[in-house]
């Protein structure tokens, strides 16, 4: 039996009862499943965890809590709090004994990735983790190109450090990312199979162990 | 010039102006520097980071944000939020290429460490990390004994899994922790040099690689 609102309008409790909404949802899903890059990575991480492939989490936002109410018989309510600047990157975890540490960033640009997407503290954190032999990178999405890359921290930090110099640039050209990065192709399970690109990065890093420049 | 409150009481803006408070503070500092175990570990982590020894952070508390105000010309204020249950342990990071993952717990008991200090989700998280060859443990402080240990996740999980059985116990005896764990001795820099105990744990784990039971 169909239900109606007091104004007589039909109540639709399911998308399948609503022919207008359905095609639009499907269309969005075809593009990027209607999810943000963060949600897509979180979903991929849940897949990796459930299949014992890796343990990776997004870190919670750091919050400065000022005031908390403890109402009787219900959960504590934070009534005043402020966002704090994170000291690290957003994601970390463990994969086959390797420490993984990364950021996820998107751009609407088509030819390059602007460095202004990063903050100094993220670069410094990656620098520290690299010194401890962590596997550090950024997952970059070119939104309009629908292309995704794992781009290693080492060339990213090099670009960051030289951006103010004469030869420096404020962005990393797509061509450079294609050469130095590892492309990820959207899949079903997981949605963003970034670990296959990370696996290539690990092989690359292992193959260069003991190779030093300048000394 | 001394300041006074409207009621005539002297305003003391510094502990050194307040002879009553000073000795008490010093007394607390002698025991455990007046810091919680968490603060002591955070301070040790800052030392390790500053000296490029390891990169370890405590994860922020996960918060469900419901309402945020954006006042003009000042920082966003969170006006309603709730604490969420964490899915992981409190600390993780990287040390010489090893993924570290741990909890910090204290007990006032003198003879054993009660398992009720742990939650199921923390045990499950450690189980997942161990399968990825992470270095997982708990830093246990026996408050009244002033003793600290790094206790590995493997015997902890074994004790957790068998606590309901006939041979099982609801706590881990201190003697067992002395045998299977690695004692940490308070120092100056860092306050809790837990990485030397972790180093012993890593050597122990490496020495047993390839040793399997039951097959």
From TrEMBL, chains A, B:
Q: Which cofactor does it need?
A: Mg(2+)
> What are the protein's GO molecular function terms?
crossover junction DNA endonuclease activity; magnesium ion binding; nucleic acid binding
Name of this chain's protein: Holliday junction resolvase RecU
Q: What class of enzyme is it?
A: hydrolase
Please provide, in alphabetical order, the Gene Ontology terms of the cellular component aspect for this entry: cytoplasm
Where is the segment annotated Disordered? 12-33
Please write the reaction equations for the catalytic activity of this protein: Endonucleolytic cleavage at a junction such as a reciprocal single-stranded crossover between two homologous DNA duplexes (Holliday junction)
Q: At which positions is Mg(2+) bound?
A: 88, 90, 103, 122
Q: Where in the cell is it found?
A: Cytoplasm
To which protein family does this belong?
Belongs to the RecU family.
Q: What is its main location?
A: cytoplasm
Chain intervals with Basic and acidic residues compositional bias = 14-32
Which residue numbers mark the site Transition state stabilizer? 105
| Cofactor comment | Binds 1 Mg(2+) ion per subunit.
Q: Which domain of life is it from?
A: Bacteria
Q: What is the lineage of its organism?
A: Bacteria, Bacillati, Bacillota, Bacilli, Lactobacillales
Encoding gene, per UniProt annotation: recU
Which keywords accompany this UniProt record? Answer: Cytoplasm, DNA damage, DNA recombination, DNA repair, Endonuclease, Hydrolase, Magnesium, Metal-binding, Nuclease
The species is Loigolactobacillus backii
Physiological role: Endonuclease that resolves Holliday junction intermediates in genetic recombination. Cleaves mobile four-strand junctions by introducing symmetrical nicks in paired strands. Promotes annealing of linear ssDNA with homologous dsDNA. Required for DNA repair, homologous recombination and chromosome segregation.
* InterPro entries per the UniProt record, alphabetical: Resolv_RecU, Restrct_endonuc-II-like, tRNA_endonuc-like_dom_sf
Instruction: For this entry, list what GO says about its biological process.
Output: chromosome segregation; DNA recombination; DNA repair
- Its EC number(s): 3.1.21.10
NCBIfam families membership: PRK02234.1-5, recU
